[in-house]
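Methyltransferase type 11 domain-containing protein: structure, please.
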Amino acid sequence: MEPAVRAAAASCSSYSSLHPPRALVARRLGRSSGLSLPARRVAVAAAAIALDPFQETKSEQNDTSETEVFACPVCYEPLIRKGPPGMNLPAIYRSGFKCSKCNKSFTSKDVFLDLTVTSGMKEYSELKPARTELFRSPLVSYLYERGWRQNFNRSGFPGRDEEFQMAQDYFQSVAGGILVDVSCGSGLFSRKFASSGAYSSVIALDFSENMLRQCYDYIKQEETPMNTNLALVRADISRLPFASCSIDAIHAGAAIHCWPSPSNAIAEISRVLKPGGVFVATTFLSTPTNSGLFSIDALKPLRQIVGPVNSSYNFFTEGELEDLCRSCGLVNYSSKVQRSFIMFSGQKP
Ligand SMILES: C[S@@+](CC[C@H](N)C(=O)[O-])C[C@H]1O[C@@H](n2cnc3c(N)ncnc32)[C@H](O)[C@@H]1O
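Here you go.
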C-alpha cells in the first residue's frame, strides 16, 4: 500500500479525526493527493471500511459483540457492537452499533453516541416542548454551569457538591454497578460520579446535543482521563436505549420538570432498572409562586386545559411525585426537602 493511502485510511479510524463524512474523505483523497487512479480507489474503499465498522473484513470479525448495556431505542433488542470494547469515550467513538432486528445503525456524532429514534433520519424532524428545546440551544448549554445552575440555590438547592453527596448516600447499595445520569445537562454530576470511582460505568445521557458537547469540553478541561468509564449518549428520556432490568442506578438532577411526559419517563426508568436498582431525582416542588393558581388542589384540573398552551415547566407536589413513583412500580419512596428543593428516591423491587 502506498504510504499516503495507509495514512489516509489510518486517519479515518483515529479518535481525533471524528468520523469525517465519506464525501470529505473522497475529496481529501482526490487528484491533489498525488495518487494514481487505482490507488485513489483503494484508498477511498479503505477509508469507507474504517467509517463503516459493519463492513465485514476478516480481521475485524472478532471485534463484533453484543453490547453490555446499549439497546435499540426502537425495539429494545441489545445492540451489536463492532469496534474496541470498553465504556470510555475513545472506545465508544470508534465503535459502530447496530440492531440486528431493525437493521438500524448508530454511530457517534461529534463526541456522543446518538441513540435517539430519529438518529440517522434525513427528512423527518420533530419539535419537542419548549422546556426540552430550550436546553438544546448552544447559549443555554454554555451558560448552564456558568451561573444558570447556581441560581437554583435561591430556591433551596444545596449546590453541586452537597447534592452529589446526598445522591451518593442514596446509591450506597448499588455501588460498583452501572449508573446512568439521565438529563445530565453539561454533566456536572456525571463527571463527579465517574471520577468517584464508585461505579463500573457512568453513562451521561441527555437529549441536547449542545449540552453533551459542553460536557465533553469540561471533561477535556478537567483532564479527566479519556479512558475513564464515562460514555456520552444522546437519548430521549421517554425511550431509554437500555434493555429491561439492566441498570443499577439512575440519577436525574433538576430534570423532571423539563420532561415532556414525566409519567412515561418514570415508567421507562422503572423498566430499565435492575431489581434492587435505585432511582434518585431532584426538582422544584410546586409552590404558589412557581405554579400560581395550579398549585391549589381545587384548581389542578385547570392545568389540563391551560397546560398545552403554557410552555413553562411542570412542577409537582410531593404527593404527586410519590404517586408517580409508586404507580410506575417503584417502592421504598423517601425524600429530603429544603424550601422548594426536593431530592426523592425510589427502588425497583
Ligand atoms: C435543568 S437541566 C438539568 C441538568 C443537570 N442534570 C442538573 O442537575 O443541573 C435539564 C436537562 O433535561 C434535559 N431534557 C429535557 N428534555 C429531555 C428529554 N426529553 N430527554 C432527555 N433529556 C431531556 C435538557 O436537555 C437539560 O439538559
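Notes: DSSP finds 13 helices and 13 strands in the chain.
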